[in-house]
Write a structure and sequence with these properties.
The chain has 204 residues and is α/β, with parallel strands linked by helices. The chain has helices at residues 5-13, 17-28, 76-86, 99-103, 135-139, 144-153, 165-175, 178-193, and strands at residues 39-45, 50-57, 61-67, 89-95, 111-115, 121-125. It has a six-stranded mixed β-sheet with strand order 1-2-3-4-5-6, with helices on both faces.
């Protein structure tokens, strides 16, 4: 069956979250240093209080928040506050219908990719360096055992087995630089992803 232009536009405009992820992955795969293992999905923050849709663990920790045509932007403000503590760069990947409202919610340093009616990701603006990322916020990307493992790498083990998230985060903030934590977090996230289900697999 041959779809008309209008039908094709409606189909692409109504792309699901997994379909948009595949578009995003194809775009990221064009980067020179790309490795599929660097892609992480549904990354929990603060032990699952919120989740980042896609995180690319390259030279930087980059977060991609997906809002399909079926989604709303109700949680975007609170998600954004956490993302700006935790990631080096953040990009919103959204359906056209969300663009105008999104401009009033997200800060200017966020990037925006539009899911166009032609089934492509169009750059609305490029992501810039996040001026607010910090050690405590990035430590929120670590699950408790990840945090203990990271501290152990730096010779810190005393009392950590009984520490809860807030205590572990404080210990990391007191002993690691942002650069050190970034390297350790990328390793922890990519290792964890090996045993986790990926939403993008729904249409693989």
């Amino acid at each position: 069956m041959v779809l008309s232009f209008i039908d094709r536009f409606k189909y692409y405009a109504d792309m699901t979250d997994p379909e948009i992820r595949h578009l995003l992955f194809a775009r990221l795969a064009k980067r020179k240093s790309f490795l599929e293992s660097q892609l992480c999905e549904e990354v929990p923050i603060q032990n699952g209080l919120t989740r980042a849709d896609v995180v690319f663990c390259g030279k930087r920790l980059e977060c991609f928040e997906i809002k399909s045509h079926r989604d709303t932007l109700k949680r975007l403000f609170t998600q954004g506050w956490q993302y700006e503590q935790s990631f080096d760069r953040v990009t919103l990947v959204c359906a056209t219908k969300h663009l105008n409202k999104a401009f009033g919610i997200i800060p200017k340093w966020w990037g925006i990719l539009e899911v166009s009616g032609s089934g492509q990701l169009e750059t609305v603006r490029n992501a810039q360096a996040n001026p607010y990322v910090n050690v405590s916020g990035m430590a929120d990307l670590l699950e408790n055992q990840d945090a203990r493992d990271v501290l152990q790498q730096f010779g810190i083990t005393t009392g950590t087995k009984r520490m809860h998230h807030e205590q572990l985060r404080k210990m990391i903030a007191e002993n690691l630089t942002l650069s050190q934590l970034r390297h350790a977090t990328k390793s922890a996230l990519t290792q964890r992803q090996l045993s986790r289900w990926r939403p993008s697999e729904q249409i693989a």
